[in-house]
């Protein structure tokens, strides 16, 4: 299946284009602001897709801060019919690794430092992929994730890692604390007060975005200023 790539011309308006990634033609949406200086790739959780409203909300905010984003489906339509696939962390991590390597082959993306943003089981996939890719991943952020499912890979992650958990997400809090203890890289565990698993409470996702954007800005060397309000 042919791969669609976006041509990024500095000084022009942002690219917003559907792409087909890798040998399986995984469907995705690539958005690259003019003069972007980093790229964040999203790994959604079980039961979600590249159309996740929460991940798209985060992606749009990162775009305003001058970061490119790629949201894509980790599984094909046929694979999604088998629910066991959405919990197959090695499979999901392999797909994410393929996508990171794909970005390295695109001329307009090849020089951008890469961050990974994972939610739910996608967080485990992001951490396993980061462990495999080493220095090719500059930062990882987990939102309401299951980093514990990354298992032994946690100790091999070298990318600075931020775990964000809802303050009322009982059970997931403990699993994140366990995973946090196993990480040997620069790390932070942040709780959003009063938030449950999907962060639906007023202001909760805004806090997630603030934390994630700051982490990526600090570790991917991206200016944190919102480019939409520059003069």
Task: Describe what this molecule looks like in 3D.
It is a single chain. The chain has 231 residues and is α/β, with parallel strands linked by helices. The protein has one domain (15-220): Alpha/Beta hydrolase fold, catalytic domain (Rossmann fold, 3-Layer(aba) Sandwich), CATH 3.40.50. 31% of the residues lie in helices and 20% in strands. It contains 6 helices and 8 strands, in the order βββαβααβαββαβα. The protein has helices spanning 53-64, 77-80, 89-104, 121-133, 172-182, 204-219, and strands at residues 15-21, 26-32, 39-43, 68-72, 114-119, 139-143, 161-166, 187-192. Strands 1-2-4-3-5-6-7-8 form an 8-stranded mixed beta sheet, sandwiched between helices. The radius of gyration is 16 Å and the shape is globular. The termini are far apart. The relative contact order is 0.15. Residues 1-13 and 222-231 have low confidence and may be disordered.
The largest sheet is: 8 strands, mixed
Order of helices and strands: EEEHEHHEHEEHEH
Rg is 16 Å
Oligomer: single chain
Give the uncertain stretches in residue-range form.
1-13, 222-231
CATH class: Alpha Beta
Helix/strand/pairing category: alpha/beta
Strand fraction equals: 15-25%
Question: Count the helices. How many?
Answer: 6
Mean pLDDT: 88
Q: From the 3D coordinates, which CATH architecture would you assign?
A: 3-Layer(aba) Sandwich
CATH fold name, please? Rossmann fold
How many DSSP E strands?
8
Q: Which strand order does the major sheet show? A: 1-2-4-3-5-6-7-8
What best-fitting shape do the alpha-carbon axes yield? globular
What percentage of residues falls in helices of 4 or more residues? 25-40%
CATH homologous superfamily caption: Alpha/Beta hydrolase fold, catalytic domain
Q: How far apart, in Å, are the first and last alpha carbons?
A: 43 Å
* Count of the separate structural domains: 1
